[in-house]
Design brief:
The protein is an all-alpha fold. It is built from 13 helices and no strands. The longest helix has 26 residues. It is globular, with a radius of gyration of 25 Å. The N terminus and C terminus are likely disordered.
């Protein structure tokens, strides 16, 4: 009698409720097996983010070690990206021109430059911003494999990063330019070699000439226009106008020739 009584309308309603959608781990594993290189890129970018956080917040291990590990993870990302973009290595001038035109080659170069220089926190800013931006979309792909409604909090963070993508790229470009005077300062502090500024200048020329990412070129233009506007104001000290205009002219002469922009490869 009691068992029949307990099997009333409430019990039937509970049995009719749909169970929560389980996470589709098998689908995630199958996707990773089918896209090994894409997943490897995501892993190296996550490592870059992790080691950068560990450098600024050294909860475990040596902060300096985390700094160089972040650069090495970025170098691994750049190398993998180059392998995807240019899978067939050729010993030709045309292949070399294609190689140095790739943004991934630029940041492989960037990592190698600062692997042999004393740690500077500003160096990790463009590295970690690129890692966050480029890992966001693939993180969403991985979450979709688990289920459309899985981990909504992570989805919100990813959406925020993607919404701020233009500002992130502008910040990266500004940091690339700002690092140039810091490299000169590091020489006087004994933290960088005499050749470091010349090598970094070559990196900046590559970034300025990038066909897929015009943000560095645009940021140079914005800085020049803003400096000219400030220097031309009547209230600006007269003795500083000459050096400012001379500096602008010098940087303009050092800039590579203009290139035709192509869509940004993200």
């Amino acid at each position: 009698m009691s068992s029949d009584a307990n099997s009333g309308p409430d019990s039937a309603q509970q049995e009719s409720r749909p169970a929560g959608n389980p996470l589709n781990w098998n689908g995630l594993v199958d996707h990773i097996k089918a896209h090994k290189l894409d997943f490897a890129l995501w892993c190296t970018r996550v490592c870059t983010i992790f080691f950068t956080i560990m450098y600024f917040i050294p909860l475990t291990g040596n902060a300096y070690s985390c700094y160089y590990k972040a650069l090495m993870a970025n170098a691994a990302t750049s190398a993998l990206r180059l392998h995807l973009r240019l899978p067939q290595v050729q010993l030709s001038q045309q292949f070399f021109a294609q190689l140095v035109a790739e943004d991934s080659c630029h940041y492989l170069f960037f990592s190698l430059i600062f692997l042999y220089v004393s740690p500077l926190a500003l160096v990790l800013l463009p590295v970690v911003l690129f890692a966050m931006l480029h890992s966001a979309s693939y993180s969403l792909t991985l979450l979709d494999q688990l289920g459309q409604n899985s981990w909504w909090g992570a989805r919100m963070l990813i959406s925020l990063v993607e919404f701020q993508s233009v500002n992130i790229l502008r910040m990266v470009a500004f940091t690339e330019i700002l690092l140039m005077p810091f490299v000169f300062i590091m020489i006087f502090l004994g933290k960088a070699g005499l050749l470091t500024p010349f090598i970094y200048y070559n990196f900046l020329t590559l970034r300025y000439s990038s066909r897929r990412n015009p943000y560095t070129r645009n940021m140079f233009r914005e800085i020049r226009v803003n400096l000219e506007n400030v220097a031309n104001k009547p209230s600006f000290p007269a003795f500083l106008k000459g050096p400012v205009h001379s500096g602008i002219a010098l940087v303009s002469r050092l800039a590579p020739r203009q290139v035709e922009a192509q869509p940004t490869d993200q």
